[in-house]
Specification:
Blueprint: H1 2-21, E1 34-40, E2 48-55, E3 62-67, E4 79-82, E5 84-88, E6 92-95, E7 98-101, E8 111-118, E9 126-132, E10 142-145, E11 152-158, H2 165-179, E12 185-188, H3 199-209, H4 211-215, E13 218-220, E14 227-232, E15 235-240, H5 243-247, E16 265-269, E17 273-278, H6 286-298, E18 303-308, H7 322-337, E19 342-345, E20 351-355, E21 370-372, E22 377-380, H8 394-399, E23 406-411, E24 416-423, E25 426-433, E26 438-447, E27 450-455
Parallel strand pairs: 11-12, 12-13, 17-18, 18-19, 19-22
Antiparallel strand pairs: 1-2, 2-8, 3-4, 3-9, 5-8, 6-7, 9-10, 11-24, 14-15, 16-17, 20-22, 20-23, 21-27, 24-25, 25-26, 26-27
The structure holds fe (ii) ion.
Length: 479
């Protein structure tokens, strides 16, 4: 009997490990390049980076680039560049806190990440690139465009993908692509995945995004789920997942400490816009606040967008811990010193948009009435399959005296994406549901007094709440 029991134990533990060893095809590394992604350089008009992965037998990888043309053989003038390579041990990861054994990735072989940064490119130009794994094993030719210098810009903003990334989030990012196929970039406002050190989670994120990640530059913001807990001889520490720097190639801010490199950065779109990306999943904020303070002081762009995963502007009573209070105090003070037009965040798994302004009358009749606003427009959004029920709390998000905002539009039980278009003095914002219908909209117009906000039609109409929409099940293991 005991022997049978032991045998069952052995079989069950074996089959557990066995499953990890038999990753789905869309997770497995091979001689072919995969997980290809474009990220903008610090100057998005002249620079972009490409990162991709291969199995570990591919020691040398190359990338080719050519200005795209209408010619059949546009590729004949392509130049070849040797990529940077990084060995990535999935089971025994190198982290900022030392070696981390990842039970998520048991029995998975090491992989190689490759990357290359192009600089001094021509603005507003369509380029074609492809990457090679093993000799002869090339990706398809992929077209990506440098940003323009003519004051025009558009982008997609997505909140937490996090849960059900492959099963449920894929339709949202693809719908977003259909809404704005020529977007200059996709902004992912943190918690891209649920388990930061899970190779399977990241495989889902890359599979769901498909060629969108390969063609439209991605701007990822680090969330708390891109932290991992490292337990080793140095104790227990929460650090950024090493997948972050391996999988993305983002602008480096040389003066910042290494733990912030590539998760605290900015991207310039000529004089049109500067996007400031903050890593809000740290314990202290002094270094980032100083960096942001200086960066904002010297910035010359017409539009300034701040993004970080945690909304630092919600009422104090909804703070989940001391760090939330600390973060709010740290970043709130910057708003009184610098003009910021738009703050884009996630983390709460809901949709809300608010302004830091005097209350204006908001009826359907006033749709076309412009109202002066005093400060930035704040947004929380969520694109994944986890949604928090704030039906009964939402008014208090705004009513707290310490809160920075008056909430204008909210949605529960509704994964969303946003399309934002800038043209000269005007910024047009539209929020869409996963079926591509507009749910919220406004336009900001620059004037001598500040930004004027005009509500769009979609800002009105019935509010989607948990009580008047379909059934929701909070299920953390969506497949
Ligand atoms: Fe989060």
């Amino acid at each position: 009997m005991l022997r049978i029991f032991l045998l069952i134990l052995m079989l069950s533990s074996h089959s557990h490990a066995h499953n990890h060893g038999h990753a789905p095809l869309w997770q497995q590394a091979s001689g072919w390049p995969d997980r290809i992604i474009v990220n903008p350089g610090k100057d998005a008009t002249t620079s972009f980076s490409v990162t991709w992965r291969t199995a570990s037998h591919v020691a040398r990888s190359v990338i080719q680039l050519v200005p795209a043309s209408a010619d059949t053989r546009f590729d004949l003038a392509a130049q070849t560049y040797k990529a940077q390579m990084e060995v990535f041990n999935l089971e025994h990861m190198q982290t900022d806190a030392g070696l981390h054994h990842s039970s998520e990735n048991s029995l998975l072989d090491s992989v190689h990440y490759h990357s290359f940064t192009f600089e001094n490119l021509t603005p507003d130009t369509l380029y074609a690139y492809r990457v090679r794994g093993e000799r002869g094993k090339w990706s398809e030719w992929l077209q990506t465009k440098t940003a323009a210098t003519n004051g025009k810009l558009s982008f997609i903003y997505l909140g937490d993908s996090q849960n059900g990334v492959r099963s449920h989030w894929s339709r949202v990012i693809r719908q977003a692509y259909q809404t704005l196929p020529n977007a200059d970039f996709f902004l992912h406002a943190g918690d891209l995945v649920s388990v930061g050190d899970s190779d399977l989670n990241w495989a889902e994120w890359f599979d769901a995004g498909g060629f969108i990640h390969r063609m439209t530059p991605a701007i990822p913001v680090r969330g708390n789920h891109e932290n991992i807990t490292v337990r080793n001889e140095n104790g227990r520490k929460r650090v950024r997942t090493p997948f972050w720097r391996a999988q993305f190639t983002l602008p480096e801010e040389k003066n910042l400490s290494s733990s912030l490199q590539e998760s605290n950065y900015m991207v310039n779109f000529a004089d049109t816009m500067t996007l400031f990306v903050i890593d809000s999943s740290t314990k202290t904020f002094t270094e980032q606040v100083k960096w942001l303070d200086e960066a904002l002081a010297s910035d010359k762009a017409k539009w300034r967008v701040l993004t970080m995963h945690h909304p630092f502007f919600v009422a104090d009573k909804f703070a989940r811990n001391k760090t939330d209070i600390k973060r709010k105090a740290a970043f709130k003070q910057l708003l009184s010193r610098h003009r910021i037009d738009l703050v884009l965040t996630g983390h709460i798994h809901t949709y809300l948009r608010g302004e830091r302004s005097q209350q204006t009358s908001r009826t359907a009749d006033s749709i076309t009435t412009a109202s002066e606003i005093m400060g930035p427009v704040f947004v929380v959004s969520s694109s994944g399959a986890k949604n928090t029920n704030l039906d009964s709390d939402i008014d208090e998000y705004a009513n707290d005296k310490n809160s920075l905002l008056q909430i204008s539009r909210h949605a529960g039980n509704t994964p969303m994406y946003q399309a934002i278009t800038i043209e000269g003095n005007s910024l047009n914002y539209r929020a869409y549901t996963g079926v591509g219908s507009q749910y919220d909209a406004f336009t900001l117009t620059k004037s001598a007094q500040g930004n004027l906000l005009t509500e769009g039609k979609a800002a009105f109409g019935e509010q989607r709440l948990f009580t008047n929409t379909g059934k929701y099940i909070d299920w953390y293991d969506l497949r």
